[in-house]
Amino acid sequence: MKMSAEEASKLLQAYVDGELGAAESLALEAHLAENPAARAACERLRATSAAIREHADYHAAPAGLAARLRASIPAAPEEPARRPQRTAWLSLATSLAGVAVIVSLVALAPMRAGKNESIERDVFASHVRATLAGRLTDVVSSDQHTVKPWLSSHLDFSPPVPDLSAQGFVLTGGRLDYVAGRTVATLVYKRRQHVIDVFVWPAQDDSAMRTAARDGFNVSHFAGHGMNIWIVSDLSRNELDDFAGLVAARVATP
Predict the structure, then answer these.
(1) Out of 118, 131, 140, 191, which could bridge 173 as a Cys pair, Cβ 3.0 to 4.6 Å?
(2) Contact present, 197 and 130 (Cβ < 8 Å)
């Protein structure tokens, strides 16, 4: 179904927020592939969202904070019977402080999960957009010694580019993408007719392998040895898990 410019404009924000269904997302992606102005508007929305995520502070409350705050509140002094209201207010304040701490702990817990969800939307959208627009690669080569220098010359880091052709995953090239508020490397592999996008950028912390599924695509993510790795493809879960394991092993031993 061909989408009008007015319809696309109304759906852009929901698309960037990951709130569209598969059919609407694909229809909008087809519209974006044909309309440079709509793509530019979409990228502006994505950049604004990414900038907010990039500069927001995420702080986990330390264990035992609630207990320490309660302990720091002095006990209410003995008061004459004629002034019971002050004791009542102190008791209420203590209770409210405890409730506030508990609420803050509950609220902070999902923040990092929410950040990963946002990045997952970014890499998924980038994969679908590149596939529909036919712009899978900026540099076309099956040679890691061609792809890696090209990407390194356009980025402020040097991404790992594993050669996995012996395992049936053929490198076809790479491109630049914009994810999580920064420019990232995207390595492009093929397994039979399936395209596999590997998004790479520097990481501060390690994280274990995580998997997800989104609108018929499978996603894998891990961080290690200074790199964030996000992988998106329509490969089966088992095959993508095998691929992700190979990438993780090569990143660990370049």
Answers:
(1) 140
(2) yes
Which residues neighbour 203 within 8 Å (Cβ) at sequence distance 6 or greater?
223, 224, 226, 227, 228
Q: Which residues pair with 212 in a beta bridge?
A: 219
Residues 237-245: contacts with CB under 8 Å, at least 24 apart? 237/211, 237/213, 239/191, 240/196, 240/211, 241/211, 242/167, 243/164, 243/169, 243/189, 243/191, 243/196, 244/209, 244/211, 244/220, 245/209
Residues 151 and 222 in one domain: yes
**Residue that has been written with the tokens 């089966």 in this structure:** 236
Q: Which range marks the domain in which residue 176 is found?
A: 112-252
Task: Assess contact for 79 and 87: CB atoms under 8 A.
Answer: yes
- 106-158, pLDDT tens digit by residue? 444 444 556 778 889 999 999 998 888 888 999 999 999 999 999 999 999 99
Kindly report, residue by residue over 169-182, the tens digit of the pLDDT.
999 999 999 988 89
Same domain assignment for residues 20 and 88: no
**Domains in the chain, number:** 3
